[in-house]
Write a structure and sequence with these properties.
InterPro entries: Knr4/Smi1-like_dom, Knr4/Smi1-like_sf. This is Knr4/Smi1-like domain-containing protein. The protein is α+β, with helices and mostly antiparallel strands. The chain has one domain. Helix content is about 30%, strand content about 10%. The chain has five helices and four strands; from the N terminus they run ααααββββα. It has helices at about 10-20, 30-40, 50-55, 110-120, 170-180, and strands at about 120-125, 135, 145-150, 155. Strand 1 (about 120-125) and strand 2 form a beta hairpin. The longest helix is centred in the middle third of the chain and has 12 residues, at about 110-120. The chain starts with 7 loop residues before the first helix and ends in a 9-residue tail after the last helix.
């Protein structure tokens, strides 16, 4: 997974999966991408960076079920009572955490960590509904990885984590969806 330079094969997969045929008019453009990055103090991982700059900035054709939201957007069901998102702060997890199955006592520290999981170091790609959000990590050790974050927990996507047969990262996530495979086909 090359996070610094877009692989032409990955871009071909993304173009085919989204079949955007508007000559890039739905894309944000490089100026828009750089402005977003400067505003948030980050550099988006490839191939997502090139995808939003040249192919499209959001799509109703999915993934996920309710479509891919634009770079600076959040899904309609995100809610207004969430803490402010801070993309500069690193995404706090490197392995699955199912807080619904966590036997430790609830604490303020646990609540703060859950807020950071939802709101630090990732952009929201979209939702499969019912509070199931797909995130692309943009800062921290898991930069470039896609995570499913729900009210019950957070799970990384990619074969190396044991829940799916898919390649990691944005292109692997899209390719898996385009092949019409279940998200977690290895469990």
């Amino acid at each position: 997974m090359n996070l610094e330079q877009a692989d032409p094969e990955d871009l071909a997969v993304l173009r085919a999966a989204f079949a955007v045929d508007d000559g890039g008019q739905s894309a944000l453009g490089w100026e828009g991408v750089r402005a977003f990055e400067a505003e948030h103090g980050i550099v988006l991982p490839e191939p997502y960076r090139t995808f939003v700059a040249e192919i499209t900035d959001g799509s109703y054709s999915g993934p996920p079920d309710y479509g891919l939201v634009g770079l600076a957007e959040l899904p309609d069901d995100w809610g207004d009572d969430r803490p402010e998102r801070d993309l500069r702060q690193p995404f706090p997890l490197t392995s699955q955490w199912l807080w619904e199955e966590d036997d430790s006592e609830p604490s303020e520290e646990t609540d703060l960590l859950m807020d950071r999981v939802f709101d630090h170091g990732s952009i929201v790609l979209g939702t499969d509904g019912c509070g199931m959000y797909w995130h692309l990590v943009v800062t921290g050790p898991h930069r470039g990885h896609v995570w499913l974050i729900t009210g019950e927990g957070a799970t990384p996507f990619g074969a190396e984590f044991g829940f799916t047969t898919a390649e990691p990262g944005f292109a692997g996530w899209v390719e898996h969806w385009a092949a019409n495979k279940p998200w977690f086909d290895a469990t």
